[in-house]
Amino acid sequence: xxxxxxxxxxxxxxxxxxxxxxxxxxxxxxxxxxxxxxxxxxxxxxxxxxxxxxxxxxxxxxxxxxxxxxxxxxxxxxxxxxxxxxxxxxxxxxxxxxxxxxxxxxxxxxxxxxxxxxxxxxxxxxxxxxxxxxxxxxxxxxxxxxxxxxxxxxxxxxxxxxxxxxxxxxxxxxxxxxxxxxxxxxxxxxxxxxxxxxxxxxxxxxxxxxxxxxxxxxxxxxxxxxxxxxxxxxxxxxxxxxxxxxxxxxxxxxxxxxxxxxxxxxxxxxxxxxxxxxxxxxxxxxxxxxxxxxxxxxxxxxxxxxxxxxxxxxxxxxxxxxxxxxxxxxxxxxxxxxxxxxxxxxxxxxxxxxxx
Length: 356
Fold this sequence. Notes:
The chain is of the alpha/beta class. The chain contains eleven helices and 15 strands. It has a six-stranded parallel β-sheet with strand order 10-9-8-12-14-15. Strands 2-3-1-7 form a four-stranded mixed β-sheet, with helices on both faces. Strands 4-5-6 form a three-stranded antiparallel β-sheet, covered by helices on one side. Strand 2 and strand 3 (27-33) form a beta hairpin. The protein is elongated. The model is unreliable at 50-54, 154-181 and 351-356 (pLDDT under 50).
């Protein structure tokens, strides 16, 4: 019995919101998070690149000192004496550098405390989720794209490179060079949620979860999946037509034999069409004369759907979020359905689901 732990984005939360949802044949635990790149529920976990904002008087004084020092450098530069500072000027510059170092130390200490709090929150989240999921079951993580990017994406992405042009930045390089750069949201998440990501979208069991949404007697299949005929046989009695469009590489003798067996058994001839070339799906434009059920096994985000009748049902077996956004943004009357969509909006069937 599989357990799906689905992490979705929900803004405005103060802490994770966990919903156990009993779906009879498997367990779904939906977890709403307010996360971003190095951000956990409004707390930034980024390495500080500059001091935080100070009050206006301190900012004015800092700006005045910087302008004064830059003016001195310009004047001495014109005179060919860039490095000749007075004792007072050297004291001011040393004071400024020391203040920057102290500010960086303060910011780093604050970040360490936020990391500690986040780690404790992740520890609690893992405990609560696994109590509902049941560790004896096969548990898989599923992420909305924005959540996955924040929690699984490379920690190095989006981080600014730090140069050592002044002592404060040199301090930062020393700090990040001693191993603490690995401390970040992505590293903490993988420490506590090292569960496998779900990859079984095209297994017959999961395809069957979407098939009841196929309400039309006309079917179109895009692409191929293992054991597809075991699914089709269940719905053959409802079919008036079946088109199957696939890549030339998938057009095999074994497939032709299965198509013949399907016709012999159910009396329905499958209309086969194959596409050529590595970019075949991107160039392909699907056209249907009547509202149809489209079973999409391609995994392609960009498929032309402008010639599909209103009311058609698109079953996206790989749950490609970009495809959903593109399809929903066109207001073409096509009903888009995927496992991720079903999991996101599934209603709780019981207060405390217990599965065998």
